[in-house]
Design goal:
Radius of gyration: 21 Å
Structural class: mainly alpha
Strand order of the largest sheet: 1-2-4-3
Number of domains: 1
Helix content: 55-70%
Number of strands: 4
Largest sheet: 4 strands, mixed
Number of helices: 10
Length: 299
């Protein structure tokens, strides 16, 4: 992607590289272990794993957008939203993405896409109805920051690798165990799910850590670009408050996509470790934006 005016974040870049390296290394070991344990099923493991990765890499953005109900809109259909996107793209010197709206009362926004040619920025009708123009600009800038930093693509691929552990294990169990009469089969029924569980747990924690940091990075970049951290803070506060009033049934339907959303549909319980959260706490995000306000005032 061409250079843009979003603040660069070396910490985010480093974390993305390290996360992808560790997850890649983890899965090389994982697939190697499965190939050693399930010798009879190795062709199927390699072929299906390869096909799944190709499908995920090339179509993940479309799958995510479709799953979250995104529908592309024209400037005639949503002139205000297109105007906001146009202003932020001009300010950031960023190619304009496709603009979409999801018919949902859950106030939120997300971005998907491997590169600037197939990027989609989507907001829900619930968000459009509730936010003021300057608040909407802050949210759009936040989402476009994800695109500019390329962490959307990294998160999509990294999240998929966690799913792959379970898929490969099922393939191995179905293809290898059913035909095996080896005395060691009973041991494999224990070893393979155990290896899969460990791999999934590690990849899950790695992607969660990256997800929390990238949200803080996007907040900071958006606030510095627009010069109005208070507007983004107001949007965060308003969205978080409105989400508390949304029926739990609707929030649970949106929860699987938390890692992509501007704000989590459902937050983790205070009794649950912060390691499981997709986003930093609202207090942490607001504190960072308050610090940026002070920083901009000093400038």
């Amino acid at each position: 992607m061409p250079r843009n005016r979003f603040a660069q974040d070396r910490g985010l870049t480093t974390r993305m590289v390290v996360t992808m390296f560790l997850i890649g290394l983890l899965y090389v070991v994982f697939v190697g272990a499965l190939l050693a344990l399930l010798r009879g099923a190795w062709p199927m493991i390699l072929i299906i794993a390869g096909l799944l990765f190709v499908v995920q890499f090339w179509f993940s953005d479309r799958i995510a957008a479709f799953s979250m109900g995104a529908r592309e809109v024209t400037p005639e259909q949503q002139p205000e939203l297109h105007g906001v996107v146009d202003r932020i793209c001009a300010l950031a010197d960023l190619p304009k993405p496709k603009v979409a709206v999801a018919q949902s009362d859950v106030p939120n926004a997300f971005a998907t896409g491997r590169n600037h040619k197939n990027t989609v920025v989507c907001v829900t009708t619930g968000l459009l109805r509730r936010l003021e123009p300057e608040e909407l600009e802050g949210v759009v800038a936040h989402e476009l920051s994800h695109v500019a930093h390329k962490d959307v693509a990294v998160m999509t691929i990294a999240s998929f690798l966690g799913i792959l552990a379970g898929v490969i294990t099922r393939i191995g169990l179905w293809g290898g165990f059913r035909r095996s009469r080896d005395p060691g089969t009973a041991a494999l029924f224990i070893l393979v799910p155990l290896v899969s569980a460990v791999v999934y747990a590690i990849s899950f924690l790695l992607t969660r850590m990256l997800s929390r940091y990238r949200e803080l990075s996007a907040d900071r970049s958006a606030a510095l670009l627009t010069g109005r951290p208070s507007a983004l803070a107001s949007a965060l506060t308003k969205v978080s408050g409105e989400l508390a009033a949304i029926p739990t049934k609707d929030l649970r339907a949106a929860e699987p996509f938390n890692a992509f959303y501007f704000a989590p549909a459902l937050t983790t319980s205070p009794t649950v470790s912060k390691l499981l959260a997709t986003h930093p706490s609202l207090e942490q995000r607001l504190a960072q934006l308050a610090a940026i306000t002070v920083e901009l005032d000093h400038r």
